Amino acid sequence: MSPIRCLSMVVSLVVLAGCGGGDDFGDLDAYLDEMRLRAPDKIEPTPTIRSYPTFTYNAANLRSPFSPQVRIDLSGQKHGSSNVEPDPDRIKQYLEGFNIEQFEMVGTISNAAGSFALLRGAGGVHRLKVGDYLGRNDGRIVAISGSQVDVVEIVPDGEGAWLERPRTLPLKEHS
Fold first, then answer.
1. Which residue from 99, 90, 79 is spatially nearest to 169, judged by alpha carbons?
2. 3-class DSSP state of 37
3. Edge-to-edge, what's the strand order for the sheet holding 104-111?
4. Do residues 133 and 140 make contact, with C-beta atoms less than 8 angstroms apart?
5. What is the C-alpha separation between 127 and 94, in angstroms, rounded?
6. CB of 145 within 8 A of CB of 133?
7. From which residue to which does the signal peptide run (predicted)?
8. pLDDT digits (tens, 9 = 90+) for 106-148
9. How confident is the model at residue 57, as a pLDDT?
10. pLDDT score of 70
11. Distances (CA, A) of 17 to 3, 8, 12, 158
């Protein structure tokens, strides 16, 4: 056996001998006896829980009494035309599968073929010309300028006819 190993065993035995043998738990025993004397003889039963009838709030879809009433003036409402309606036989373009709100104009390109708008949305930047369609409401590009793209959408008027609704996609600067 090596001297280092022998020395470490001796030190271990001395440390272990110092840990045992002392019955110095008098203060702990006194504290526990005191707590046992204070403890009640009888434990109170848990209180009974009274059930209350459930309440279902049914006025969630009603107008809030704290907001002003909205008066709808139907005389100024635009009515659809029988001349305007989407073409069901037209082949849909790729960008008509996305909402028009997600597109933003980021620039223009002009060449001999004409002027094109650059629109960001639907996972990339797309080059569009006048007459192209985008958005889910048959939106057709009617004009392209350096600062905006004008689109006309065909939307239902709620009475069975169709309306043309103009929209503008402004140039987004610092994009």
1. 99
2. helix
3. 104-111, 114-121, 124-128
4. yes
5. 12
6. no
7. 1-17
8. 999 998 888 999 999 888 999 999 999 998 889 999 999 989 9
9. 84
10. 62
11. 21, 14, 9, 94
Q: Sheet of 148-156: strands edge to edge?
A: 133-134, 139-144, 148-156, 162-170
Quick check: 148 and 104 in contact, CB under 8 A?
Answer: no
> What percentage of residues in the chain have a pLDDT greater than 90?
25
Going by pLDDT thresholds of 50, 70 and 90, the confidence category of residue 17 is low
Q: Strand 162-170 and strand 104-111: pairing? A: unpaired
For the cut 80, the answer to whether the pLDDT of residue 19 exceeds it is no
Compute, in degrees rounded to 10, the torsion defined by CA atoms 145, 81, 97, 116.
-20
Q: Read off the amino acid at residue 169.
A: L
Query: Which residue bears the tokens 């994009």?
Result: 175
Decide: 117 and 108 in contact? Cβ < 8 Å. Answer: yes
